[in-house]
Write a structure and sequence with these properties.
The protein has 255 residues and is an all-alpha fold. 69% of the residues lie in helices and 0% in strands. The chain has a domain of 48 residues.
């Protein structure tokens, strides 16, 4: 999941090199002094550059979001054709990946309480048409990496800031989406990719650290990065299965 965003950031270079290349250079220079602000600097600087160079049209008028209650309707067709596939996708591509990201960053929470809390929140927000609440692998990768804070015990402080950001998005959701929509697509792709570079590097270094698990980790990475989808289940799940099979065979051989 993460590597796809990183690759797409590189692919954005030929789309608009005069905008993208200076931003990439600025990112790595700023990162030397303050990694936590490097991505934000690219977003603000890139947005300003796009606006000043005429790449952005008129900005939308700010509007407040509204909550609309959507009465749920339970049908067998919806449960089998929609609810069950979404459940599998959420578990495989978000919750499973989120746990993997947390463990790659050195955290080892119990999965049960996490899944229980996110499931309860999903149940509460479902009548309003909200997306399923989950561990959000990409957000976890950004929040738990060493660029956030050298001390893993201090990285939890990013949580309140993310909560505040989500609250702002909830209140001004439509307007903010419209603002991002008028920004160059290459800029959005670049910011997303650069934000995930450090988490990707950290995850790869941990995954490939042990000689006995290196092949399994490589297979997991390759299958997941391929974007493979079978039976409606995403690549994150199949990557884990492939890696576990290889790890089992490697362990069996040693015995």
């Amino acid at each position: 999941i993460v590597v796809t965003f990183a690759i797409n950031a590189v692919k954005a270079i030929p789309v608009d090199p005069w905008l993208i290349l200076p931003l990439i250079a600025a990112f790595f220079v700023i990162r030397l002094f303050n990694p936590a602000l490097s991505v934000l600097a690219v977003l603000i600087g890139g947005g300003a550059a796009a606006f000043l160079t005429g790449r952005v049209g008129g900005l939308p008028t700010p509007e407040l979001s509204t909550l609309t209650l959507i009465a749920p309707q339970f049908t067998v067709t919806a449960i089998v054709g929609l609810a069950l596939p979404l459940y599998l996708v959420t578990m495989a591509s978000q919750n499973l990946s989120g746990l993997a990201v947390l463990r790659a960053a050195g955290y080892h929470p119990e999965p049960g309480p996490l899944i229980g809390v996110t499931g309860l929140l999903s149940l509460m927000s479902a009548p309003f048409g909200a997306s399923t609440t989950n561990l959000a692998a990409i957000s976890a990768a950004i929040c738990t990496g060493p660029d956030v804070h050298p001390d893993p015990g201090e990285r939890w402080k990013t949580g309140p800031f993310y909560a505040l950001a989500y609250l702002v998005f909830a209140i001004f959701g439509a307007s903010l989406v419209a603002i991002f929509a008028v920004l160059p697509q290459s800029l959005i792709v670049l910011v997303a990719g650069l934000a995930l570079m450090a988490p990707l590097a950290n995850a790869l270094s941990i995954a490939l650290k042990e000689d006995g698990e290196r092949m399994a980790a490589t297979v997991t990475f390759a299958v997941t990065a391929s974007g493979l989808t079978l039976f409606g289940v995403g690549a994150a799940f199949w990557g884990l299965i492939a890696g576990l099979v290889v790890l089992f065979l490697e362990t069996l051989k040693k015995r």
